C-alpha cells in the first residue's frame, strides 16, 4: 500500500488513534489490552529515541539531531535490533518477549493500513530472527483454556446477557428504545452462545464460521443445529460433512439465543456478522433489488435503530461472522472479563485454546480414545498433543511404586517444612 502520509510524521502521533481503535468503551479509552499495548509502544518510542537500553544508547536517530523519532527512521533493521533488545538486554522471559513484539507488530500493521508506513517490517523473518525460538515447546505448553479461565469467561457472558436482556424486557413496548435494547440482547446472546460452543464442543472455529478464502466454509446455519438431539452438522477439516456433539452446557445458551433472534429461516447463519458497514451495504442493495427507492429505503432504515434488525424483519440474510471476527470477539470478551492471558502468540483466550482445553478434560477423564473421537482427530495425534498429561500420570504411578517397593523416605529440605539447619 503506498504511503499516504508524510515520512517525517512523528511516530508518536499515531499512538492515540491506534489505541482508540483497539480500546474498550465508547471513546476507546479503556481495556486491559490497550493499557498493555500503550505501555509497550511508549517503551519502543523511548528506545528508538535512545532513552532506553544500556547506558541510554543513542537509539536509531542520527547523531546530529535532537528531533522526535519519525516514521522515516523505521526500517527492517530497526525492528531486528528491537527484537534483539527484547530477547536479550531487556531480560524478558521467552513468552513475554514474544508478546511484546506482537504488540509492536500489530501497531505496525495498522500503520501500513493507515498509510504511515510502506511495509510491514515487523512481520519479516529477518526482523523477527532474534526473538526466542518456539521450536522446543511441548504441545502441553500451547494455550489451553484452564478451568478458571473458562469459568471466568462464561460467568462474564452470562452476566452480560442477563443485563442486556433485562434492559430489553423492561423497555417500553413498541418503542425505538425497546428495539435498540433487543439488538444488544441478541448480540450478547450470540456472544454467550459462541463462547459456550467454542469452550465445550471442541469444534474447530473454521468449521463453525465463514472463511473468506474458502467458499465451502460459509459458516454454521440453523438448519445444521439439532438442539433436541444435541448435535451439529459441520464441514470438517478432512473435507467432508460430519456430526459433532452438543454437550449439555451448550444447549440452553443456544436455545435462548434462537428464541430471542427468531431467524426468519433455518438458512440464517447461527453466528451472523454484526458489522454496521457490512450490514448497511447489504440492506441497501437488497432492498434496491426489490424495487424500493432510495427514499423508501431510508425510511425503512429510520424505523430500525440497527440495520441488523431491519435485515431480520425483511429476511435479508447476512453472512456468517468470519474466523477473524470470532478472534476479535474473544479478545474483546477476555478484556471485558479482566482475564490476564499471556503466551507467545496471544494475550486473550483464543479459539484454539478452547478446543485444547476441552481436549484436556476428555483425556484426563476418559483417555485418549474417547478424546480422539470427540476432537475428530487420530488417537496418535491426540497422544502427541497431550503427552504432558500422560507424563504426569506416569509420574504419579512411579511415586506409588516407589512408596510400595522401595520405601525410600520422602526428603525434606531444612527450613522448608523440615528440621532447621544446625
From TrEMBL:
CDD domains membership: DNA_BRE_C
GO MF, any single term: DNA binding
Biased composition (Basic and acidic residues): 18-31
Assigned keywords, A-Z: DNA integration, DNA recombination, DNA-binding
GO biological process: DNA integration; DNA recombination
Superkingdom of the organism of origin: Archaea
Ranges of residues in domain Core-binding (CB): 6-112
Region (Disordered): 1-31, 127-149
UniProt keyword annotation of Cell membrane present: no
PANTHER family, sorted: INTEGRASE_RECOMBINASE PROTEIN MJ0367-RELATED, PHAGE INTEGRASE-RELATED
Protein known as: Site-specific integrase
